[in-house]
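User: Hey, my collaborator sent me this sequence without any context and asked if I could get a structure. I don't really work with proteins. Can you help?
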Amino acid sequence: QGPYSAHHISAWYASGHLHEQVAVSNAGGEAVPLAVVLPEIQRYVDESLTQWPALAALAGLLDVPGDPTRQYHSQSFNIWRLEQHQLHRLVMACLLHLDIPIKFELPLEAFRNFMQQVEHYMTKHRNPYHNFYHVVDVMQTCFVFVSTVGALDLLTDVEVLSLLIGAIVHDLDHRGTSNAYQVNAATELALRYNDQAPLEMHHTALTFQLLGVPAFDIFANLEPATRRQVRKLMITAILATDMTVHFALKDDLDATIVRNTPDDNNSEHGSIGSGSHRRNSSAGPVTLATEKDHETVLKTLLHIADISNPAKPWHISKKWSDLVIVEFFEQGDREKREGLPVSPNMDRTTTEQASLSINFVDFIVAPFFIALTGLLPKVSWFCSQLSENRAEWHRRNLAKVRECDDPEKVAEAEARWMRRDAAFQQVMNPVLDKAGGARPDGRGRGGGGTRDIAAAAG
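Assistant: No problem. I've predicted the 3D structure and written it out in structure-token form, which is a compact way to encode the shape of the chain:
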């Protein structure tokens, strides 16, 4: 019946309890669909919230009881339920949950201006994958690592600030093409940064150019020493999202786990075991021994969040996979037009989504998630979802294999992929069994994967 405030209506719409076609009264008392007045309502709500404490209500809008896909602190949160303008609210809710804006006196107006700049640079190239949704999703995943999985026990407040803001800008002004393309095409960025991680160099440089503008300076109230530390940490973490340093970072993570956790399990899984089987979920919080260990964990959390799509609920994960495939193939087409070498996995005539996804899980994503359980046992929740998704890709891949008309080739390919699947489960299942298969949303586990799969598969 009403009347209801603009804040109530905005909250109900954001949480999915109010359809945009429901009839509401406009300023003149005329009944119109909510969609007609919704932009004005949301603009009023945003403008009325002028102080960080007043924004605390945002968390309630993004935390629907009983539905993990609508809970901003959940692994299962579905960012695709949000309109693009609502992504700003999600970022603010995550920061407020940890009291970051209060602890560091982030100026709200500058923060809003800064986020508008981030949105601008993440939408200007119209990338299918590397866009505003991606960077906010990575930030929300980092937030889950900190708030729900237990990374807050490992990091300082300054490191948490650096991680979350670093996540927001880690792909700032991404061009929708890889570093390999930048180098091969001798682009402006490649020339500027001498072919050395041109994209990541650009993301960090542009970030601090923006922060140098008073209207965008969210760090204006930090002490000079703290500001220098945040800058150093953000640059370090963002540069570590370059895939060329992936395996070196994995080695650093394994070494960090060995230094900081007791070997209570005598694992037989080599380098993977050094990460995934060194401590149990009942052990107390780890205190990282050195500054290098803190740096390694910070870099790991941002990098693993950046590649975490395969560990999201299937319907979310599949959408991300579809988008990255579109962006990959667009680059491959562009490379062909420009007479450049076609980058791996970017030729639409030879790349299969299912087999690509399995390889990405087995050799890139799973090793990090498995290893990280050695420091953060609750990461096994992500491993469980990763296993479920891989099982679905395995099913789809076998269906594709069986489309071949040559029975011998089909049998050979089936045997090869079945060996890979068995090897994956051999490494992943002990991690899931030890964790009991629990997940934040209460669901069970699926089936298994990791870097040592090639060796295990023979």
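In plain terms: The radius of gyration is 23 Å. You can pass these tokens on to your collaborator as they are.
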